[in-house]
Known about the structure:
Mean pLDDT: 81
Helix content: 10-25%
Number of domains: 1
Structural class: alpha+beta
Strand order of the largest sheet: 3-4-5-9-8-7-6
Low-confidence stretches: 1-35
Shape: globular
Distance between the termini: 29 Å
Amino acid sequence: xxxxxxxxxxxxxxxxxxxxxxxxxxxxxxxxxxxxxxxxxxxxxxxxxxxxxxxxxxxxxxxxxxxxxxxxxxxxxxxxxxxxxxxxxxxxxxxxxxxxxxxxxxxxxxxxxxxxxxxxxxxxxxxxxxxxxxxxxxxxxxxxxxxxxxxxxxxxxxxxxxxxxxxxxxxxxxxxxxxxxxxxxxxxxxxxxxx
Length: 195
């Protein structure tokens, strides 16, 4: 499925589209009292530091910008708690190309979904990338990786499942596009150790 950015342009990368939409969305819905079939709240910005991202991505980043969609009540991700963190390159504050995500700025983005215990839904996040490849929303076939319980590289990032948590991390380095997969795998491996 193709996600449309609020400005109307199509962003092919599933994680980037989902995460950017979350960054543009309203604040999270308040939790209903007594809700027990939801994932636990997570703060994506605590899973990586700006210093370690800067060292791995080869560009300095600002502190992460946190945006939680919070508890997702319906649809394929219903029951999950979704949190996103975006680290922008310090030098790219003035980037403003409307054709590119974040105006062409370099960045690292992390989306984490915590699923209800015992729901076995964490795998649906990774399955979404496989389905996107089958219907040609993303180019190429996802490549299996050995991070967490299950993981894959989908061409624009790494998606991982560990227990009741799934997450995706993408790097946009502009000048080092050929190295992005290695950067994404390194960051994904650091995150899995912290869950």
